[in-house]
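CORE FACILITY INTAKE
Project code: CF-77B
Contact: R.S. (postdoc)
Sample description: multi-component assembly, two entities in total
Requested service: structural model of the whole complex
Turnaround: standard
Below are the sequence entries exactly as provided by the requester. Do not edit them.
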Amino acid sequence: MQRPDWKERWSGLFFVAPFLVLFALFMLWPIVSGLWNSFFNTSLAGVKHQFLGLQNWQDLFGDPAVWSSLKNTLVFTAMSTPPLVIIALVMALLANRKGLLGWLLRFSYFAPFVLPATVVTLIWVWIYQPGFGLVNGLLTAGGFAEIDWLNTENRAMLAVVITTVWWTVGFNFLLYLAALQGIPAQVYEAAAIDGADGRQQLFRITLPLLSRTTGLIVVLQLVASLKIFDQIYLMTNGGPNYATRPVIQYIYETGFTSYRIGYASAISYLFFAIIVIVALAQFKLFSGRKEAVG
Amino acid sequence: MPPDQPPSRPGRRAVLGGVLGALALTGCGSFGSKPKVREWNLFGGGDGARLLQIHQQYVAEHPDVAFQAHTLAWGPPFYTKLAMSAAGGRAPEVATMHMSRLKGFSPTTMLDPIPVDLLENAGVHQSDFLPATWDRCVIDGKLYAVPLDQHPFVLYYNLEICKKAGLLGSDNKIKPVKGVTAFLDMLRAVKETTGKYAVSVDTTSPWRLWWTLYGQLEGEFFSPDGKELVIDDAKALEALDLIAKLASDGLTPRSANYAALVAQFSNGEAGLSFNGEWEVTTYQTAKLPFSMAPFPVVYDVPKFQGDSHTFVLPHQAHRNADDTKATIEYIAWMLKHSVEWAAGGHIPAYQPVVKSQEYLDLKPQAEYRSVAPNVFYDPDAWFSGSGAQLENESAAAFSGIATGQATPKTALAQFKAATQKLLDTPSPV
């Protein structure tokens, strides 16, 4: 291949320039100015701000709301990721068939994902209501006591997780389904000729061949779960008593309800660092697995 | 054709020219020579629909004014956007604001004072308002807001249920009760009739109920200079204990959020409802047999948690005299037409309308107008007021009281600690 001369190189830059400008303006600049703001008592109200040095950072480590909201975020991630991966896989295995049943399963598994967050939360807040909600109706009909799902500190997070799984599992399901359909039929035919039963085919062929997809889904899911905000804000507003408030909501409240942009920036940076660490750890695991399989 | 020369593509200059031209157009605006009035408000519910109708009438009567109204999401999103636009000096000409947020909004930097002479030229005078309401709008001797209405915490009652419970007088209105015992007797009578609850109330955020009761006990909150928390533990606990008792006796639900509150009163599970007055349209639409009354005086003095919508002039770096004049005339016009606004439940602040026969004929909206002088506003602080952080902290601390997850004592301690933390935070406004 010929080495491109300088003109061709620079013309390439010209073509990506519009994207680069937008990227710099809306990604790089906010990232830098966020870090800058975290050293000031910047106010959204435009009041003159002063340099604070590391004061915001010191406050952050002594602020129990930061740690409790971070903990809530991690608890949500730990509770939601396993079911979102495992249920998606089971659903994909069930739906990976031809005919009307396969079509019906594919449709019904994916349908909730199409709904916007507002609709989903509206539906589920009614489902969880004590007194006249569907879930409590079933519980009382079965002779159990009612549970005040969204207003009990140790139940609210579970309620949000159930809603989130119902709503978003369709996306992971679709990724698994695509991967399943990519496995050649000959592999199963060969295995059947060798006398492998269904169980052996599942554990020796299907799951190993899906491991790359599983890695991808776990990464995407962890990042998505760490960014939890909308359904909690709409279902419990972080309550009861902040038992479900994720760190993004605390950042939002600090920066936008209380106008304290400087302090909110410092908390964002702490959270940013945690996501980077999680992503790096994932990357390590993921690249290790690739070598083992491939 | 050479690949680097695709056909019929607009030249760089043409694109650049077009973009600059478009920017110039939006920058200068297309209002022409008409004075412009851009209004931001936070009425997304039933009152928002009413506001649209009133605005349509305003536009029809004022073809010489370029008028634009924008409704933004209630609460923090609205105040965030308003603060940012005012901080940048590029705010709309006029916006609505809760009176309780006024002092916390840094009026001297983020709001422009209202020219009282223009207001008087437009036919609106200080004497047209209740003195206490007007005084709250004056900061450092300057007027920063014009009150449109007041919206107190009131009592809704189901006429059929209350009749069966024997609570109605010969005029078919609920008999007023005074004192804790009479209050509890009334609630028990309703509970026996419904077989379920007496009252529907938001237990997940009981701020309005608690602040009403605490106000009726004449409790203080901040020291006069606003720097210290001087909450009266005994009175605060008395009010919280009553809230706990209502729930544990089954008079109110142990857990109901705002949507459940409305549903439980609508479907007759509760014969009474404690809430702001703005749901009147909802229950009228549902054809519910109901009326409204002032919230009972459970303790010593009549005080009712409430707030007031006002018009403010958010700060503009380059205020235009013609626009300001048209804006003040818009505010005056809105006040004079506030009987239509009152149909949505709010008590007009403009006294000539309050005294008008048209308003007095509004039923049940005129039934609780007597509480206007006793509306009890949220404490003054940058973190307080409708939709602000103090209400969130109270919801977090107090929501466990009705469910029984928290005792009034621990809830109060938590609320006081959270308030103290907010007090210790330097004000960002």
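Facility notes:
- The radius of gyration of chain B is 25 Å.
- Chain B is about 45% helix and 15% strand.
Invoice: internal transfer
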